[in-house]
Design brief:
single chain, 1 helix, membrane, transmembrane, mainly alpha, 54 residues
């Protein structure tokens, strides 16, 4: 049977894995808005178009 000390050594790895999973899911969710936001627009602004900000 495992000693209780090993449990405290495993908890950070479980937390890291869960955080990595949530970060990947958030990135996947945000890709839905990639072409629909001015934030993800072209890097060089088109001089013929007015800016989207006031």
């Amino acid at each position: 049977m495992a000693s209780p000390n090993y449990i405290f050594m495993i908890i950070p790895f479980i937390g890291y894995g869960f955080g990595w999973f949530l970060d990947r899911k958030e990135t996947e969710r945000m890709t839905l808005f990639r072409d629909k936001s001015a934030l993800y627009g072209p890097c060089t602004p088109d001089p013929s178009r007015p800016p989207s900000w006031p």
